[in-house]
Structure formats: structure tokens, C-alpha cells
Structures
1.
Amino acid sequence: MIVKNVRCDWVFLAETNQHGGYSMCLMLPNSHPQLKEVTAAIDAAKAKGISSGKFSEANTKSANFKNPLHDGTAEHASDERPAHYAGHMYVNANQKGSQPGLVGPDLQPLMDDSCLYSGAFYNVEVNFYPFDTKSKGIGCGLNNAMFVKHGDRLDGRTNAEEAFAGLAAEGDLQ
């Protein structure tokens, strides 16, 4: 499925994350028009996991069952990111193999890494799948991403022009 116009955090699309894969966290406001569609896709993956024998209906109700959809308000209330996640549900999408496809709004490969940061908006193609490895649950595969628009950075970083504007205005460049 393609989740449209979603703000993302922890964006690792040009280089791998600490686990050796590519990933991004899709932050869906509680009012996002596709939230029910995402929930339905997760439910379909659960049904597939049950019918394929990867896990049982009882497993899906266990506290140990891994559900990819998280409540940002509840889960990040006590850390440094509550403002970013409040009022949002989020999904961590991952790709362990090859790099996900990445294009700009013109559908051309994205060569400008200034569009790859936490806070930017993307259209993201994901797939939900059942797993039974060390634990049981539903995973979220990251297939492709399309940069949509810039947003306020979530990592607190500014661009170089903003960082050094005061020095240039003061004439104190050395």
C-alpha cells in the first residue's frame, strides 16, 4: 500500500541505520485519512499469519505480539519527543536487503540528500507481513519512498545558512 503525505522521523534512506538496513518512521496524525486503511492492512496480515500457521488468534492478543502500529502519545509521553509524536500513530518501516527506491515529486531518482531528513513529508510504499522468528507479529516492509515536501526538522538541526547568519551580519567570519 502507499501511505500518502506522511511526515517521517528517523529517516535512513541514503545510508543504512545502526542495524544495517534502511528505515523510516511514518508518523500518521490521528486524523490521517489513511489510518483506517493502515489498520485494515495490518489486520489482513494478521489473518494471513493465522491462516498460514505462523501464529494463532490467541498469539495476536498476547502482550508479546509485535504490532507495527504504535500510539505516539502513550509511548513517547516520558521522552524528549512527546511534542513530535503527540496526537500521532506511527509505524517503523524497514528494508534489510537492497536500498528502497527513492524519487522526487517529478518521479525522477532523488539525488539531493537535503530532502532526506526527519520532518520531511513523503509518500511511502509499504507492505505488512506476518513473522514468526524469535517473536511473533506483523512487520512493515519499506519498498519505495517519494519526497513530497519539506517540513520542520525534528532533529533540531538547522541549515548552514541559518547557523552562520549572525556571524556574517556581524562581519565576524574569522
2.
Amino acid sequence: MARFLPEVNTNFTNPLDLGAQGALPHIYFRTIITLDKDPNIDAIVFVKDPERFKGLEQRLTDKMGFSKSTNLNKVFITYIGKAIRVCTKPLIAVMLKISEGFEEYKSRYSFKLKLLNRSVPVYESVESAAIVLNHLNNYREFLQKHGQYPKS
């Protein structure tokens, strides 16, 4: 990832932090694709808050190569859809609650529905996503113990 992410304002260890680059849909996509190729990663849990960078996105839209009328959440969904088609590992979204306003709620709800329609589960906290992954792992271990799941 060092090929396309700057060293400043990013964290390459787990948990990965894209910093300001996380506002760029194509960087999100490249990161997901790169993580999918890593044999040490079983699932990709990503945090996306559609309303979090609204001001930043409005200021940087032109600099990112998009017109001012571009809906970046729609562009993100397009890139996540592309990632889903090529990834072999499950994608799980976490959408932390940032704002309480009606416009933010509409943005969040729309984004969440689009993810769910693409079979990407969405959780409101990292803890909830981790609990679900732990239960899935426990179930896998149970099935393996009873010879009902490949040991891989």
C-alpha cells in the first residue's frame, strides 16, 4: 500500500488508517483490493461515515477530479460494488454514528441500504462487528470439530 498511500497521516498496521486519503473513493477501492490479496487477512472490516467528510469532500471535489455536483457517496458505492465483484474475502462495514441531524440520517440510511443491497453487512460499532466475527469463528470451529467444515 505504500505504493499509493503517503507515509504521512496514514497507519499501515492493523487497524489500517487511510487518513485524509480515506475521502478518495479510488484509494478506498485500491486498499480493499490490496487487503483482499493478503493471505493473513480473513475479512475486511472498513469504516465509512457518509456524513463525516462532507465539508472536506465539498472543498476537495474539484481537486479530486469530480464536478461539484458529484455525489461522492454514490461514487463510493460504485467503487465498493467493484471491490465486491473481485474480492474473495467478506466485506463488513462499520458506520459510526457521527451526527444526529436529519440530513445526516438520510445520507447514512441511503448509504447503508446500498451496502445491504450489495450483501455487505453494516454495524454501528467496531465492537458489534467483532462480536459477530467471533461468533462466526466459534461456529466454524464447532463445524470443524464435528467434521462438517473443511479444515483449510
3.
Amino acid sequence: MVLNHQIGVRFPVPLPTFAIAATAAIIIACGGPRLHAHHAISSVYDSSRQVTLDGVVAQFQLVNPHPFLVIDVTGDTGKAQSWRLEMDNLWELAAIGVTASTLRPGDRVRVSGSLSRAQDQRMYLLRLDRPVDGFWYEQVGQSPRISTPGRR
């Protein structure tokens, strides 16, 4: 036990160590900063297997660490299939003007990207075009870009 002479209380660990540990515990318990395991895109998606699809937005989730888009694609059989498309990190998308309402259910889109190495109907989104208003998104290297000519 260590006696803190300033406040007359005995602590089982030195006060500075206790204060640091308590502060860290409070920060983690309150949810910030968020700690997530991160992956290399190339370990999850195969850049040598690219595909282009036409579909309709079912949902867009602007979430941390990677927002995702779910689109419904009508296959050769006429049956709709849901595809999950992972995007660049949340903070970079927000910095270029992407918001939760940028992509809405019902939007018709054409998407291109790298297929998942392990899961069916998943891809890393490299390009998205929304023909109705000329909006496009693309992931070029480490930097996402958008164009909003007919912004809704």
C-alpha cells in the first residue's frame, strides 16, 4: 500500500498508476476511441477477380470501420441475389462528402470491384455509378473520390 500524503488515503498501487488505469478504463467503457481489428484488403478480396454488376440499392450503412452497401442483383435465372459491398473507411468517405443519404434504397447502380476470397456475393467496391444523376464513387489507391454533378 502506498500512502498518498496529499489526500491521506492509502492505495494498493501508486496514485499515478491508478489514475492512468482508471482513466483508460473509463475511456474504453465509454466507447472511444473505438478499437477494431483491421485487415489488409488484399487478404480478404482478390484483385485479380473483378466483376461488374447492375443492381438496386437495398441498404447503405455508413458505419465504422468500413461502410457497406447491399444491392440486389437480378441473376440469369431472374431471381434477385443480395450482394454486400465493402467500401473505404468511414472517415475518408466522410471527408469527401459521403453521408448516410448519399445512397438510398431504390437507387439503380452499376458497381465494379474485387471479389471476396472466401464469401460468395461479396466484393470490395472500387467503382460505383448512379446513371440517373451522374453520381460516381471510386476507390483509387488509398484515396476515395466522388463526383456529384446532379446532387439530390
4.
Amino acid sequence: MASTLPSVYLHKINTGYKYFAHRTLEVLSADYPNATTELAFANPYELLVATILSAQSTDKRVNQVTPKIFKEFPNPDALATANLSRLQQSIRSTGCFRIKARSLTRMAAALVDNHDGEVPTTMKSLTELPGVGRKTANVVLAHGFSRPGFPVDRHVLRVCNRIELIQTSNPTTAEFELKRIFKKSTWVHASDVLIQHGRNICKPRPRCNLCSIRENCKYALRQTSRRATD
């Protein structure tokens, strides 16, 4: 979906990465003003479970599975003692179901044993939970507790590398670089907007003709130049 705003010329080299990032976010925010996580949840525990399930899957698929999971295992105590085979079958459609089932039960047990059954509110404590990496922790912090976080998934990596805000395929490196580039107050929104843009426009096979920042995207400019010389 292309923005209805006038074309904005983002001279990254002359004005620096931060200004380029700010203007890029401004334009894309007009395309996705209500961007947020698409995972359905009612509390931090449910969001943590849903985010673990979303690895190598889609939010749509996860949302089809989680109502049954949340009903059957409404809290960490119930999930920690879940029958593993039964849990595996319940989450099978999300992929990697054996690994995810083990991660979920171990994560829940850690919540019960070390956090009184409550989801912790710090990056350090979250990433100490089995099956929880920085992306999952950032999602929980950002959307479960309304705290600053910058979730970096494959969509964020793709978009930011194409517009050359970053030049890395490592999610952790990208997270720290993007946190330095964007204002802390915009981290959550920036991540959500970039994810939506990656899902809708800047796909593996991008729809550059519909992109509102194509005039300043090095990837799009290279594609245009290549077609012009063919």
C-alpha cells in the first residue's frame, strides 16, 4: 500500500542514518498507522507462549492454535505439567512441534520454580527462560509490559538491509544497531511498522512498485537500474 503523502527525499549520506531512519519511519507510519503485533493474547503469559509458537510459523496459524492451548493450560502451573505427547499434537500445525513442546513445558516450569509463576519483566530474566531468545523477550517486553523493546524478525532484517540502515543478517547485531539509530521512544512502533512493511510490500519477492520509500531504497534503485540496462 503506497502512502498518500508527497514523496519524501531521504538523503541518507548527507543527513545521517538517524535522520534517514526518522523520515523512513514517518513515511511508513502513514501506511501502517495501527501497526502492532498480530498475535492474540490476554496477558504476558499468553503472549510468551504465542511468541514461542510463532517461530518458523505465522501469526495467523498460531492464533488458530492458541485458544485451545490457553483454555487447556491457562497458567504456567498447568503448562509445566502438560502431557508432552498431547501438547505436541495440539501445536503440531505450527511446525517444529516437538522442540516447541519441550520449550513450552520447560519455560513454564522455570516460571513456576524461579518466578512464582509470573512472567519476568527484564531482558536478562526472560532470556534465561528455556526457549526464549532476545526476539521473544523483546516482543514480551514491548507488547506484554509496554516497555521499550525492538523485536527483530526476518521482516525487519530484510527491510533494513535493503534500505541499508544495517548491513548484517545477525538478529542480535541488528537489534543493537537499530536501537542506536532509532529513538528509544519509537523502538516498539518502528519494529511493528517494519514488520508490517516486510509482510505486505517488502517481501522476499518485493512489490517495489507499491512501496512508498522506493525512491530512496538502494535495493529498489538497483532493481530499476538493472531493468533499464536489460
